[in-house]
UniProtKB/TrEMBL annotation:
It comes from Bradyrhizobium iriomotense. This is Periplasmic binding protein domain-containing protein. Belongs to the bacterial solute-binding protein 2 family. Residues 1-28 form the signal peptide. Keywords: Signal.
Length: 349
């Protein structure tokens, strides 16, 4: 009888231990999360560079979200670094965050491969790692958050072809060569264009995501190409530069794609253009911050969160411009966001 009781007690203890283990596993539902970090949390924002307006706006959404989380007692501090475009500097700054034992790291990667080792070290330490926009190759992060850049390019090409009636000459404007977002947008457009042989690509160019260099590049293309029927622009500032170039050279406006750059949207409306745009929402930074805190609290956060691409058309461009005063003149008018939207995105399967 004594042996039976001892066995029963042992099984009971094993059951409790198993239950505790399962609870611990449930609490650490997301990758890298161990469940031993308690609020208020310290958030690290490992910024690759801070100069472009898009990045400044993105950091603004992070700071706003941190303020909201501070008010709830969930966050105590935001640590911000700026690698000034240098991937190696960013790696060193991430290591400093690890040494300081931050609870979460928010990351736009300066390199897809270089940060792998330092991110693995952060993950092993139980730090939540939220990677958005420019993604890393490693899976040693809590979550990757992004729109589908290939879909971006495919949708832009499809709209332009339809707007041109399926035939004509186009030029293609890409972002800087080697930037993953730009390359992926162009890859997405490729099969769509290939399926329409009556659309002729006269030429294409790579340029920085700024109006002035884009205008200069398009001006050169205009001199070399007299008949242009459409412009496949894979960036908003590129579109604004293209319109400036057409205007200055007295060339007719043609169907054009782009994104949510305020200058482009204002030109679109004032010149009554036939245009289409989407966006890489600046609030991806806020969402990454919110998701990091959710993960640290034991909530299930998917390894990849796909953000739907909002579409700006002639039907709703006015709605975006109605909010223009809330954004910088050289900034991006992004769509509204809320914790409710963030919860819906995290609930995606």
């Amino acid at each position: 009888m004594q042996n039976v009781l001892l066995r029963a007690a042992a099984f009971a203890c094993l059951g409790v231990a198993t239950l505790v283990g399962l609870v611990g596993q449930a609490h650490a539902a997301a990758n890298c999360i161990k469940g031993d970090r308690k609020p208020p949390y310290t958030i690290g924002w490992a910024n690759i560079y801070s100069v472009p307006t898009w990045m400044k706006e993105t950091q603004g959404t992070i700071e706003k979200e941190v303020d909201a989380l501070k008010a709830k007692g969930l966050v105590s501090k935001l640590v911000v670094t700026d690698a000034q475009g240098d991937a190696n500097t960013q790696i060193q700054q991430i290591q400093s965050m690890i040494d300081a034992n931050v609870d979460a790291i928010i990351l736009i990667a300066g390199s897809s491969s270089a940060p792998a080792r330092v991110l693995a070290a952060a993950c092993a330490k139980g730090i939540a790692i939220m990677n958005f926009d420019s993604l890393v190759d490693t899976d040693q992060v809590t979550a990757k958050i992004n729109t589908d850049s290939a879909q971006w390019g495919a949708q832009a090409a499809t709209w332009l072809i339809d707007a041109m009636g399926g035939k004509g000459n186009i030029i293609v404007l890409n972002g800087p060569a080697g930037v993953s977002v730009s390359d992926d947008r162009r890859k997405g457009a490729t099969p769509v264009l290939a399926a329409h042989p009556d659309i002729k690509i006269l030429t294409e160019t790579n340029t920085a995501y700024n109006v002035a260099p884009a205008q200069e590049a398009v001006t050169n293309l205009l001199f070399a190409n007299q008949q242009i029927d459409g412009i496949l622009s894979l960036g908003g500032a590129l579109s604004a530069g293209a319109i400036n170039a057409l205007d200055k050279e007295g060339r007719p406006m043609v169907p054009i794609t782009g994104e949510n750059a305020r200058q482009f949207l204002e030109m679109w409306k004032s010149k009554n253009l036939k245009a289409w745009a989407t966006m890489q929402p600046n609030w991806l930074g806020a969402f990454a911050t919110y998701a990091a805190v959710q993960a640290l609290q034991g909530k299930d956060v998917p390894a990849f969160v796909k953000i739907p691409l909002p579409v700006i058309s002639n039907a709703n461009v006015g709605e975006y411009l109605a909010k223009a005063g809330d954004f910088p003149a050289d900034g991006y008018i992004y769509s509204p966001y809320s914790d409710g939207l963030f919860d819906q995105l995290l609930a995606q399967k």
